Amino acid sequence: MNDPARTARPEDPADPVSAWRRLAGGAVLLDGFHALKHAVRFGAEVPVAIAADRDAALALADELAPDVRDALAALLTEVPRGTYAALVPRPHPTAVAALAVRPSRAGNLEKLAHIPRTAPVVVLDNPRNLGNAGAVIRLAAGLGATGVVTTGTLDPWHPTVVRGGAGLHFATAVERLTVGELPPGPVFALDPEGEDIRSLKLPDEALLAFGSERSGLSPGLRARADHLVALPMRPQVSSYNLATSVAMTLYHWSTTGGAPA
Questions:
Q1: Residues 96, 117: one domain?
Q2: pLDDT one-digit tens code per residue, 41-72
Q3: How many domains does the chain have?
């Protein structure tokens, strides 16, 4: 049966594999159904999307994302499972993948710098773990943070980070900056020697800064901090996971004046 949705493609409808290979070097890999679902939901431009079993992918959409089911039907092209597997670094259980256009850096920087803000910016200072960075972006999107900024060498748009973020990079502003390039706003940096967060109200315009689990805040970020803030922690427990620390801090913000968008 001919299905117009299978061929109504903005990229080369007759040859999605050629389109994929042509675009892959400069595009964002959306790895799996949920990454594609979230990217489409938050307005990503997706020039090519493939599935090893299109009917199964659309059945998932019927169950989990009826709001974007029609958009996914127009985007997805079925390819043989072996072809799909050859195009991605690690096949996803849903056998769905897509390429998206990365949001404009200038546009993201404008969002991050805009004052007044209605929600904080999360700053990850020299993060090391790609999966943790992805989890933080997912948290930030869920709680309505203005954006997530990383310093150091980790690329927040690395495919592993995007996979960990489930495509929610498109729901918030994600960029890598130096400490000197951070957007305006008071810096509340998490540190065991800081003031107990339970005694504070975090302003919407705050930059919430988190050091790496191994080495904490860098000297440059510590010097930039306006306030040091500590999370409650039982004695003899050395640290929380980075994503857990971000979740606790954003939740505290959301329950003391802020709210998810």
A1: no
A2: 999 999 999 999 999 999 999 999 999 999 99
A3: 2
